[in-house]
Design a protein that fits this description.
Blueprint lengths: L10 H8 L5 H12 L8 H12 L1 H16 L6 H12 L16 H9 L2
Length: about 120
């Protein structure tokens, strides 16, 4: 999980004041990784949908049922295949406004998460 780092000044000034200028590329990489991810997920959309699936009981049960049926019939577990059931049962969006089929969702991460249910 990425570190929660908040700096009071640009990273270049922090590096200069702390004598870590030689580590500048590493510091920038850490901060950029943090900015481009959300609690260990690719982005907010992926994190949000995963959060609803894992923490809202009706949504979780639907996902578990989908995974069990996929395994029973030897089908690949795919978030894309779960989307129609999510939309039918809960509407096109999570309760806080993220579309189940948002193009920003990292489906590889979602497939992995579903396979672990």
């Amino acid at each position: 999980m990425p570190l929660d780092i908040s700096l009071p000044m640009p990273v270049e000034q922090v590096a200069h004041k702390t004598g870590t200028g030689h580590r500048m590329p590493y510091i920038k990489q850490v901060l950029q990784t943090q900015e481009n991810s959300m609690n260990g997920w690719a982005n907010w959309e992926t994190w949000n949908v995963s959060l609803w699936i894992n923490n809202d009981e009706p949504t979780y049960r639907l996902a578990v049922e989908y995974v069990e049926q996929s395994r029973l019939f030897g089908k690949k577990i795919s978030y894309d295949d779960l989307i129609p059931a999510l939309e039918y049962r809960f509407g096109q969006m999570t309760p806080d406004g993220c579309r189940w089929m948002d193009g920003k969702i990292n489906t590889d991460e979602m497939d992995e998460m579903l396979s672990e249910l």
